[in-house]
Write a structure and sequence with these properties.
It is a single chain. The chain is an alpha/beta fold. It contains twelve helices and 20 strands. It folds into two domains: 174 residues, 3-Layer(aba) Sandwich (Carbamate kinase); 161 residues, 2-Layer Sandwich (VC0802-like). An eight-stranded mixed beta sheet has the order 3-6-2-1-9-11-12-10, sandwiched between helices. α1 crosses α3, α2 packs antiparallel against α3 and α9 runs antiparallel to α10. The structure holds adenosine-5'-diphosphate, aspartic acid and magnesium ion. The site of adenosine-5'-diphosphate has 18 residues, from loops.
């Protein structure tokens, strides 16, 4: 007997027929003698609708974070009850649990709460009695009993964290694609499914824009060694296993191309080139809770530098206002912003022992006449900031040149 955690995303529970399809899959596994915890998202589009309602009623103000979470969590609450009913209709005992009911304890950072502890006693008791536990993804409660949510896409993290806490044999992420691809299959037609990908690469891909898994879910799986399998809820074939690096046989130089349009760029022109300037620029941003991602500094001959950085697009207006204040205090020539940018990245373990990948990347972008505004690299990834409009063209061209045509790395 195994303990299996399955997570079904919004498209997989989009309507009654699909919920019945999920129920049939779950019942089948349970009848084979396994214990099953099913974590579900809200029905497709539901979270966006709730978000829009909150914004409509709040007018120009940001919705109150506590009430926003109370509202958004209702999407998942609907699905758990419906799925539990559908499973019961197949003669299998099932019981639904909200985040609070299943012991998902988080901190109090509404809309992006972090899991602190999972009290598994209740789930275990019901599993031991032979019931399927249907749990709400994306939500938890803080120590004051307030409902919290884990950030968009957070059901992946709920599922993996529960799998870790229960010591499950596997965590299966069922979604509308049949695995992790070398690029978003909706953007790059030739993208191909990977049978395995390392935790490290998946972590980079997720944080650089591949929304198939929420970044934090990959971190949990890596930290607690949860076997993670991304697969389709409409097919029964194997999907993609996320595994330790040493278990990846096909070591590609570039195993994924991804883009992210959730950032904005801010530039301070002619900042004095002196010690202590960076700290003056970035301290107020940090104090405002704004996370800066890429930073680039260019030198001029006149003792000044240009400082450019990116921030989450949702924080753009606040960040720009802060940068303008700092700019004035530092006597900068100008403070400029642009929120129509995209960060396009290539990721691959093979880059560690393969020179010249960056040059190839820049060459491909040059051929497409795409201007590179910023560059950042790490051992297994290269990211560039470009104009948002050209993001899809860039992904397709980079995929064609660096994944489709590329040989595997030596030692593969
Ligand atoms: P769910 O609702 O099941 O959580 P998501 O919409 O969050 O599903 O994630 C699945 C989507 O992720 C796919 O439909 C696909 O368009 C997108 N995606 C982006 N990059 C990739 C990739 N490299 N491999 C697979 N899917 C990707
Ligand atoms: N329903 C939430 C969202 O749409 C959580 C999730 O689907 O993972 O972001
Ligand atoms: Mg998702």
């Amino acid at each position: 007997m195994s303990l299996i955690v399955q997570k079904y995303g919004g498209t997989s529970v989009a309507d009654v027929d699909r919920i019945r399809n999920v129920a049939a899959r779950v019942a089948e596994i349970q009848k084979q003698g396994h214990q099953v915890v099913v974590c579900v998202s809200a029905m497709s589009g539901e979270t966006n609708k709730l978000d829009a309602l909150a914004r409509e009623i709040s007018g120009n103000a940001e919705p109150n974070p506590r009430e926003f979470d109370a509202l958004l969590s209702t999407g998942e609450q609907k699905t758990i009850a419906l799925l539990a009913m559908a499973i019961q209709a197949l003669g299998v005992p099932a019981r639904s649990f909200t985040g609070g009911q299943m012991g998902m304890e988080t901190d109090s950072s509404h809309t992006r709460a972090r899991i602190q502890r999972i009290q598994t006693d209740r789930l275990r008791a019901h599993l031991d009695e032979g019931a399927v536990c249907v749990i709400a993804g994306f939500q938890g409660v803080d120590s004051g009993g307030n409902i919290t949510t884990l950030g968009r896409g957070g059901s992946d993290t709920s599922a993996v964290a529960v799998a870790a806490a229960l010591g499950a044999d596997v965590c299966e992420i069922y979604t509308d694609v049949d695995g992790v691809y070398t690029a978003d299959p909706r953007v790059a037609e030739n993208a191909r499914k990977l049978s395995k990908i390392s935790f490290e690469e998946m972590l980079e891909l997720a944080s650089l824009g591949a929304k198939v898994l929420q970044t934090r879910s990959v971190k949990f799986a890596m930290r607690y060694a949860v076997p993670l399998h991304v697969r389709s809820s409409f097919k029964s074939d194997d999907g993609t296993w996320i595994v330790p690096e040493e278990d990846v046989m096909e070591r590609l130089v570039v195993s994924g191309v991804t883009s992210n349009v959730n950032e904005a760029k801010i530039r301070l022109r002619n900042v004095p080139d002196q010690p202590g300037i960076a700290v003056r620029v970035f301290t107020p941003l940090g104090e405002a809770g704004i996370v800066v991602d890429m930073i680039v500094q260019n030198f001029a001959n006149d003792g000044t530098t240009d400082m450019t950085f990116t921030v989450p697009r949702a924080d753009y207006a606040r960040a720009l206002a802060i940068a303008q204040q700092v700019g004035e205090a530092l006597n900068c020539a100008a403070v400029e912003g642009d929120d129509q940018i995209a960060k396009v990245s290539i990721v691959g373990l093979g880059m560690k022992d393969h020179a010249g990948v960056a040059t190839r990347m820049f060459d491909v972008l040059a051929t497409e006449n795409i201007n590179i505004q910023m560059i950042s690299t790490s051992e297994i990834k290269i990211s560039v900031v470009i104009e948002e409009e050209r993001a899809e063209v860039a992904v397709r061209a980079l995929h064609a040149a660096l994944v489709d045509e590329a040989p595997a790395s030596p030692g593969a």
